Amino acid sequence: MRNDIERVLIDEAVIGKRLDAMAQDIERDFPRGTLVVIILLKGALVFAADLLRRVPRVLEIETLNVASYHGGTESTGKVDFPDRHFPEVKGRHVLLLDDILDTGRTLHAVTQRLIDEGAVAVHTAVLLAKDKIRAEEVAADYVGFQIDDEFVVGYGLDYQGLYRNLPYVGVLKPSVVH
Ligand code: XMP
């Protein structure tokens, strides 16, 4: 797997330190009480597992499938909700976790849906935010790292379903991308 990576962008230790700080910010900012956390699958799985174990409060954890990429390296522009069940968020404070903020379409669409479902407040946390002009005007409340506008894998992020288990964020060799 390491042979397919051209460059390590953010290594494991650096991610861990940043997650310590993000978890403290989240713990400080949210009102007392049980918080509902929604993890966007599959990309935010690794980020969420490592971040949420650092947050010392009672959390209710839900997952949500959102399809916007469909396997390639370019966004298709359409956000689908393929799950039949949508998390119960009426009257709740929600923390939404995603792996990366790119065009902004995913966070925009999911936030809107959560508000439509009756959430009191929706805050968002992403591991990565690409430095670019977004298709939707949306900013995450908690950002792990700002990165250049390039395709990355690892730490939950995939290329055609692969590389999610890389323990760091990296850039693939051009020879691996087709
Ligand atoms: P939008 O464009 O809706 O994108 O903000 C969010 C989703 O797009 C995927 N995405 C990536 N996946 N490497 C990936 O593996 C990338 O560089 C990348 N950029 C966007 C990802 O699923 C994210 O949730």
Can you put this structure into words, describing what you see?
This protein is an alpha/beta fold and 178 residues long. The chain has one domain (2-172): Rossmann fold. It has three helices and seven strands; from the N terminus they run βαβαββαβββ. It has a five-stranded parallel sheet. Strands 1-7 form a two-stranded antiparallel ribbon. β4 (93-101), α3 and β5 (121-130) form a beta-alpha-beta unit. The radius of gyration is 16 Å and the shape is globular. The mean pLDDT is 93. It binds xanthosine-5'-monophosphate. Xanthosine-5'-monophosphate is lined by residues 43, 68-69, 75, 98-106, 151-153, 157-158.
Q: Could you list some keywords that capture this structure?
A:
3 helices; five-stranded parallel beta sheet; alpha/beta; 178 residues; binds xanthosine-5'-monophosphate; globular; single chain; two-stranded antiparallel ribbon
The domain count comes to 1
Instruction: From the 3D structure, determine the CATH topology.
Output: Rossmann fold
Structural class: alpha/beta
N-to-C order of helices and strands = EHEHEEHEEE
- Which strands sit side by side, in order, in the main sheet? 3-2-4-5-6
Strand residue percentage: 25-35%
Number of E-state strands = 7
The radius of gyration over CA amounts to 16 Å
The description of the largest β-sheet is: 5 strands, parallel
- Tell me, what is the CATH class? Alpha Beta
Each distinct ligand: xanthosine-5'-monophosphate
Instruction: Write the CATH architecture name.
Output: 3-Layer(aba) Sandwich
- Contiguous helical run count: 3
Overall geometric form: globular
Q: Fraction of residues in helices? A: 10-25%
The overall pLDDT, averaged over residues, is 93
Low-confidence residue ranges: none
